[in-house]
Amino acid sequence: METLRFRFDGRQALPAGEHHALVGVVASGNLEVLLERLPLDGAMEIHIVTAARGFGEIWQAVLGDFAARHPLRDLRISINDVGATPAVVSLRLSQALEALQESAP
Amino acid sequence: MKPPHAKATAAEPSAVNAVHDSSTRSFYEADARARIAGLLDRASFREFVGPCRRMASPHLTPLDQPGAFDDGVVVGEGLLRGRRVLIAAQQGAFLGGGVGEVHGAKLTGLLERAVTERPAAVLLLLDTGGVRLHEANAGLIAISEILRATLAARAAGVAVLALIGSGNGAFGGMGIVARCCSAVLMSEEGRLSLSGPEVIETVRGVEEFDARDRALVWRVTGGKHRFLLGEANLLVADRIDAFADAVLAALDGLHESGDSLVALEREQTRLSQRIADYGDCRDGLEIWRRQGIAEPERLPLLDTAEFLAAAATRGTPCN
Amino acid sequence: MQLMPLLERLFPLGHSILRRDDVFSGSARTAAGEVTLIGTANRREVGIDDALQLAAAVLASTREHPQRPILMLVDTAGQRLSRRDELLGINAYFAHLARTLELARRRGARLVTLVYGEAVSGGFLSFGLMADQIYALAGAQIRVMDLRAMARVTKQPLDKLEALSRSSPVFAPGVDNYVRMGAVESVWQDDLAAALLAALARPAEGDRRRERGAERGGRTLACDVAAAVRAGEA
């Protein structure tokens, strides 16, 4: 297993919505993504636990791309991964962001 | 022709239909959170010890297995068609829905809460092979605690319902827990038993149980067989709203007060009679035929409504 | 230990059991009065017929002597692995046995278990683990599966699991691990009759296994997690 941490400076405030959102499952080829609104000095912090070692650069690329498209402030992203492909990671991140912004009725 | 479960579509704009979108979808295909969202009234669910608490199992890291923030089970409370319920849903894709220390404690805590909160019911959405082998001792003890807490909740007057329509079904110790509940609600896709066919095949050989023969596995453990045997109280179509209907139907007229001596003596007779009637059978087909069902081999092919109609013709009362 | 010498050591005042294959029930005399006995021997794999036989004895005890303690003597290699038993719903037969024991408890019977041989998963869940207090003999074995099978399932090397099992009680077989996790109260040595009397004299206190597991450091989370859920914490 490997633990990875990333931090990106945010420029956009998160739109209103839920306090947190969880999507995905910790299963082979899949991952779970937990988003939480937290005061982080305007940063987006990402914490990953992955079963697959040695993919730090790929994570960096995928998450860098996500952070460039969504330079969000004060957001913590926590991931438990069992070897998901970059495409699945991107999909789950988008789904999680969508779920976080769903307005409560 | 439209299949019966393809009613509401996303194109219909009203909020009511938006709710139907999630509730008419397949129970089998949904994951734990989607099952809860589809069963409960919109936005009524409140999760206990949710993912932000990061109450993951500490026993997986030494085995190089990432944990899950909810340890593979979602528990909380909400409204089902206006009735206050406590609800738990196992995440079948995470380690086969296996019960470990934290996972099990969440289920036990929920059942204990029922004794003081007195909800209309506790709903257990089971999707599990039983004990999580990565923490086997903790899992075995936890299931024993769940079992006792289930019986204690019922003795305190709270109905506990097992909903089984998932990929893993309810196996191992959780198959025992299911039958300690007030009632068992299943879909055809659900399975309920004790030892997995793979385990039996591995230990006793393929002649005893061919785990790759999916049709046979369903004739031995599947929802239709369990219904015909009287093991599942209700058999429903694989739709989340059909399970919600079944919950209301099961609660209707159910006055839970725990097992009485009379009820258990009746069960003793029923289970003895089952061995006398079917103890030499090795395939559901033989039992269904003895129950007087015409052309039993067609039962696996029928949809739920057709199947229930055919099942109503059986002569021997199910036991 | 074999069943017959065990019974003699437990019940110097006498006992009477009816044994069919390796499943038995009966009664015994102690200084504190009669107890009902149920149990298995010779590493019996518990099947549906066995579960019914045990349940019948529990129901009879509850019907005729609701307050009489029930002692469960456990030696089982687990549930019977058979397609026929699964077909007829072995989980229901086990649930039925557990429910008869719960009823006995609610009607005032103390439930005590002694693991004197092996105690393995399903066969243990349906009766022995239902007791208020569970004890074991020093030479007994309690497990879900052996370490080699564990290694296959978890895809981990055996030596790594063996090393881990020295520090963690959660997955390796062994009575001591179940003591640390709170499921087994203690190990009985020497005077078994006296140990039984002491167990019968203890008041019933509900399911305290999580608390004991936390106190003993073998199961540190279960107690707090269940309490948090019970309190409805977010």
From TrEMBL, chain A:
It holds the Pfam family ACP. The modification O-(phosphoribosyl dephospho-coenzyme A)serine is found at residue 28. Covalently binds the prosthetic group of malonate decarboxylase. One of its GO terms (cellular component) is cytoplasm. Keywords: Cytoplasm, Phosphoprotein. It is found in: Cytoplasm. GO terms for molecular function: acyl carrier activity. HAMAP family: Malonate_deCO2ase_dsu (MF_00710). Subunit of malonate decarboxylase, it is an acyl carrier protein to which acetyl and malonyl thioester residues are bound via a 2'-(5''-phosphoribosyl)-3'-dephospho-CoA prosthetic group and turn over during the catalytic mechanism. Belongs to the MdcC family. This is Malonate decarboxylase acyl carrier protein. It comes from Tahibacter aquaticus.
TrEMBL record, chain B:
Residues 1-259 form the CoA carboxyltransferase N-terminal domain. InterPro entries: AcCoA_carboxyl_beta, ClpP/crotonase-like_dom_sf, COA_CT_N, Malonate_beta. Transmembrane segments: none annotated. SUPFAM superfamilies: ClpP/crotonase. Keywords: Transferase. GO terms for molecular function: acetyl-CoA carboxylase activity; carboxy-lyase activity; transferase activity. GO terms for biological process: carbohydrate metabolic process; fatty acid biosynthetic process; malonyl-CoA biosynthetic process. Signal peptide: none annotated. Pfam families: Carboxyl_trans. It comes from the Bacteria. This is Malonate decarboxylase beta subunit. It comes from Tahibacter aquaticus.
TrEMBL record, chain C:
InterPro entries: ClpP/crotonase-like_dom_sf (IPR029045), Malonate_gamma (IPR009648). One of its GO terms (biological process) is carbohydrate metabolic process. Pfam families: MdcE (PF06833). This is Malonate decarboxylase gamma subunit. It comes from Tahibacter aquaticus.
